[in-house]
Amino acid sequence: xxxxxxxxxxxxxxxxxxxxxxxxxxxxxxxxxxxxxxxxxxxxxxxxxxxxxxxxxxxxxxxxxxxxxxx
Length: 71
Description:
Layout lengths: L12 H15 L1 H9 L7 H21 L6
């Protein structure tokens, strides 16, 4: 997928560059390239369980502190 930006009238270089950056980020090409660049191992069931328990703990703490915001 090719991304390019053509100058519109008296548009400054900075504005042209920022418009190009925005278009590039919207395509999510860089995110895909970085994902392909590194090898990620599958998460084991044990690690999934540990992370889920941590999330539950954090959620319980947040729910408990929801009404006591000055603590």
